[in-house]
Design a protein that fits this description.
alpha/beta, eight-stranded mixed beta sheet, about 40% helix
Length: about 425
């Protein structure tokens, strides 16, 4: 097959490489000339993705992958167009379609009869049929479902392990009509070498769009519940982690782990598609978002309980990335942590081995090299580089707040510092402020 992948970001580029590895001729489309040039020379512009550099180099060497900024021409030469251009939300939580609308226009100008167009970008329910279908039709003069196939198939992979996830998780598809759904299912079976049982065909695009929102919103709500459990337990001197582990030994309990917040492009964003009035105004996702976004302020409260007034104190945040091992700061809990610390007059420093000092400064934060002098440390991203930290090497540090449940408390206490954990009691019973 000849496949166009529109959007060569952290999901789109590995997808293009996977299709090429399966023997298909792939054209990757991106508006960023630097990304296109890097791909065409076999250099991955996406960092931290397992196996991507080697697989990309092999695809370019085999002549199976070519990148371009000309989406319309690429689509006109292909049998299928897979769209993985990000949809973001603004500061008010409103969906910003600007980038994907522009990509849709480029696709529409190159669309031919009989082609398949699949949106993989997570979307509000109804967007494939009601927003993009008419745009594609207006630009091409072709009717979705009659002259070309139109479907939605959510990406179900995580950064850092995309190829493993593609080989593991079932692919979900839904078309604007049954033939479009069947065509999309056949495409993924061939493009990814999947058996028929690994492709789940849903009744329509709306059901497929909703399925992805169910996945991500479930995780956000589950984490919010874990965070509520953690705060309840800590106030009573109970270890919430031990209680959750015990509860999860029963097969109907699947409580996630509490933490200092939820970040990334997906979990904090996609529940917003279900919250707005136009989406029916679901209440539980709204409450979960509020709980998870409040955890950074709760962390500041724990530090205050342990150290006293934080005004003039220095707090070192370990990790700008939203999670360990991934160079991505979108909706990272560090943003809320810095905001909360500054609000009480504390000085916030940020360290992250995946980001340069200039990249940290670009976010408006003060970078720090380890070990740095600080009154307290906060583990925000559980990078592997932090696993062997020598806490005794941090001059003046009196407390370590483990925001990800990744530090053994005895290591902190052995260094003469107070261990604080989300769900592990903010201040150990019987202890007062650190001296």
């Amino acid at each position: 097959m000849r496949i166009a992948v529109i959007g060569l970001g952290k999901i789109g580029l590995p997808l293009a490489v996977a299709y090429a590895a399966a023997g298909h001729q792939v054209t990757g489309c991106d508006l960023n000339r630097q990304v296109v040039d890097a791909v065409n020379t076999g250099r991955s512009p996406v960092t931290g993705e397992a196996e991507l550099p080697e697989r990309l180099a092999a695809a370019i060497s085999a002549g199976r992958l070519l990148a371009t900024t000309d989406t319309t021409t690429a689509v006109a030469a292909c049998d299928a167009a897979i769209v993985i251009v990000p949809v973001v939300v603004d500061g008010r939580g409103e969906v910003d379609y600007q980038a994907i609308d522009a990509a849709t226009e480029d696709i529409g100008r190159g669309l031919k009869p009989g082609m398949l167009v699949v949106y993989e970008t997570t979307l509000p329910v109804g967007a494939t049929r009601d927003r993009f279908g008419p745009r594609l039709a207006g630009l091409s003069g072709l009717s979705p479902g009659r002259d070309f196939h139109l479907a939605f198939s959510p990406e179900r992979v995580s950064s850092g392990r995309i190829f493993a996830d593609l080989a593991t998780y079932p692919k979900i598809v839904g078309g604007v009509d049954p033939p479009s759904g069947a065509r999309a299912a056949a495409f993924y079976q061939e493009a990814l070498g999947l058996p028929a049982g690994r492709v789940v065909v849903l009744p329509d695009t709306e059901t497929a769009e909703f399925a992805k929102l169910v996945e991500t919103t479930y995780r956000d709500v589950n984490i919010a519940l874990a965070n509520e459990f953690a705060r309840f337990a800590a106030a009573r001197g109970i270890d919430a982690h031990a209680a959750i582990a015990a509860a999860n030994s029963q097969p109907y309990s699947h409580v996630h782990q509490p933490g200092v917040g939820v970040g990334g492009h997906c979990i904090p964003v996609y529940p917003l598609f279900l919250i707005g009035a136009g989406a029916g105004g679901m209440t539980l996702p709204r409450a979960a978002r509020a709980v998870n976004d409040s955890m950074a302020a709760y962390a500041v409260e724990l530090l205050t309980e342990s150290l006293g007034n934080l005004e003039g104190r220095t707090v070192l945040i370990l990790g700008l990335a939203y999670r360990g091992g991934v160079k991505e700061a979108a909706f990272s809990s560090t943003h809320l942590l810095v905001e909360g610390l500054r609000a009480v007059g504390a000085r916030a420093l940020v360290n992250d081995p995946l980001f340069t000092d200039d990249e940290i400064r670009a976010h408006g934060y003060e970078p720090a090299t380890l070990p740095a002098a600080a009154d307290a440390l906060v583990l925000q991203a559980a990078h592997a580089e932090y696993e062997a930290l020598d806490f005794a090497a941090f001059p003046g540090c009196r407390a370590v707040l483990d925001g990800r449940g990744a530090i053994r408390p005895e290591r902190v206490r052995a260094a003469g510092m107070r261990y604080l954990g989300i769900g592990r009691a903010g201040v150990v019973r019987g202890e007062g402020h650190a001296s």
